[in-house]
Specification:
Length: 230
């Protein structure tokens, strides 16, 4: 049985087509300091809706504030994005093992995300930026279907300035005029030179994760150095 705590919606912004970034205030609850690792998730509920689970997109260490990336298209997310600021909902304590960022210091790091899976990886990136010199090269591989589906695209420049290379790819550019990379995330991995001890964090579509893991293993990464937030 889950324990539930009140959360207040304090900010909302459009993150990409069909994706909304919500900021919750949990500062006056027992879960204010409970977010311990990037990649953890929490359950959310509203009266009249089936509860749902969302990765916490903000980094640990910001007491009382959680960012959630909400994907529209099902009843609870649709209701959440329509709430007025100041509205209340209920959340659980963060769950999941998250990503072991503290265990990969001094090493190169590959980050992989598709679609709304960037939420958990954003938590990693913002954590990395606080102690960037403690890590080697960091590359984010981020794949979406259309150019307008990149959540947090506004942050790409600041991530690059923090020496986090962003490899953005679109699988269905159509007639959008997209001039960047096309195809699936795993198709661009072959271009990466992998140093000994490289670690990988993945979040997103199951097929992407499976193919990326197969490629990384074939290129010599240890299974123990490949992590998903499940």
């Amino acid at each position: 049985m889950k324990d539930w705590y009140p959360a207040t919606l304090v900010a909302r912004s459009l993150a990409a087509d069909g994706l909304t970034d919500l900021t919750l205030d949990v500062s006056l609850t027992p879960v204010a300091h409970a977010h311990q690792r990037p990649g953890q998730y929490a359950w959310v509920r509203l009266p009249g809706y089936e509860e749902g689970v969302f990765a916490i997109a903000s980094p640990p260490g910001i007491p009382g504030r959680w960012d959630l990336l909400v994907k529209e298209g099902s009843p609870l997310p649709e209701a959440l994005v329509q709430l007025p600021l100041g509205a209340r909902m209920e959340v659980t304590r963060p769950e999941g093992r998250g990503f072991p960022l503290d265990q990969v210091k001094g090493r190169d790091l590959l980050l992989f995300a598709t679609g709304s899976g960037i939420s958990a990886i954003r938590s990693v990136i913002e954590s990395l930026r606080r102690d960037r010199d403690a890590y080697g090269r960091v590359t984010l591989y981020f794949g979406v279907r259309t150019p307008s589906a990149f959540a947090y695209a506004r942050d790409f420049q600041s991530w690059e300035q923090a020496r986090i290379r962003v490899v953005a790819t679109v699988s269905q550019p159509g007639a959008s005029g997209w001039q960047g990379l096309t195809g699936y995330v795993q198709a661009h991995l072959a271009e990466e030179a992998l140093a000994p001890g490289t670690a990988a964090f993945l979040c997103g579509q199951k097929d992407m994760a499976q193919k990326v893991i197969e490629t990384l293993l074939a290129r010599g990464l240890s299974a123990a150095d490949i992590h998903q937030n499940v």
